[in-house]
């Protein structure tokens, strides 16, 4: 039988003392942290809870200003502005070679429409729901009135013009951090796509960033033939490694190898390193494009429909859920507890729970909850035991992170 461990803590914080109220919006947060638990030293039952009515509230925006929407949109546009080679170099683009044979000549007959490419000015709407009230389910409001503000982001896809001569390009691919389902699939598709463009000089950097400065590691030549069946194997064809490295050494290696495009697969730390590499290349005025592919099975990237490895994670999670269900169902008043990955988001836990159809309680970081009280998780479990005889709980590892807020704001007892 599994059980929920109690968390002890005391205190009540005032949001205004910690600058949580944005200017012109004094009711965006309500936050309280009160002790709960069942130890001998702490006998009171209470809880730690948070209600956020405006997740996007910006303390720098004066909502009394009639032009605040324009100000917000301009700041949003800056946040998602994309660096371009033309920022540093005066390059004349050339006609794309992407699937040119399949698309035929660029010339079109009168009246014929050709919709094969994405325009540089194309944008897609980030949020498509207009919430009428901050109290609407799932509401994410910017101001107290939950005003509609358009947030546009760049549209992905092949462009009609490109800025490299494919036949002269050398592309590098590197996988960093830990292993993740789908790494070989991503490597394979990058090679396939580069091949479609006409890029033939493609190499893999072995064992993460280490491959740039470790003299004993050599480049791995990649081609369509080499990567054809690597998607059938797990792990990474190129190998992975962790640990920091000198940005200067890495860029020296990139320069010495004459790499024009570098595709980096990794997580938070890897992307921080990739950004440092990009900045160093700009500083040296090197014509190098650094392309990052987020490696996270949590599916927690804002502008992506789905991250690679997520489907596999959900599928594997259901095996653990099925086992927990059998254990709980077979035991007297059994409770099965399954903890899944999801430090900041509960997509794996939610999708696995919905897919299995065997979960009674699903706890995720995005939704605050109380353990105790008349509507708490423990009370609900008690009712499930009385009515069903057993229960299964699925928990994302970051669920209940309100406690971390209590720690951050120095609530006594944590």
Automatic annotation (TrEMBL):
The keyword Nucleotide-binding applies. Keywords: Allosteric enzyme, ATP-binding, Glycolysis, Kinase, Magnesium, Metal-binding, Nucleotide-binding, Transferase. Residues 171-401 form the Phosphofructokinase domain. Pfam families: PFK (PF00365). It catalyses: beta-D-fructose 6-phosphate + ATP = beta-D-fructose 1,6-bisphosphate + ADP + H(+). One of its GO terms (molecular function) is 6-phosphofructokinase activity. SUPFAM superfamilies: Phosphofructokinase (SSF53784). This is Phosphofructokinase domain-containing protein.
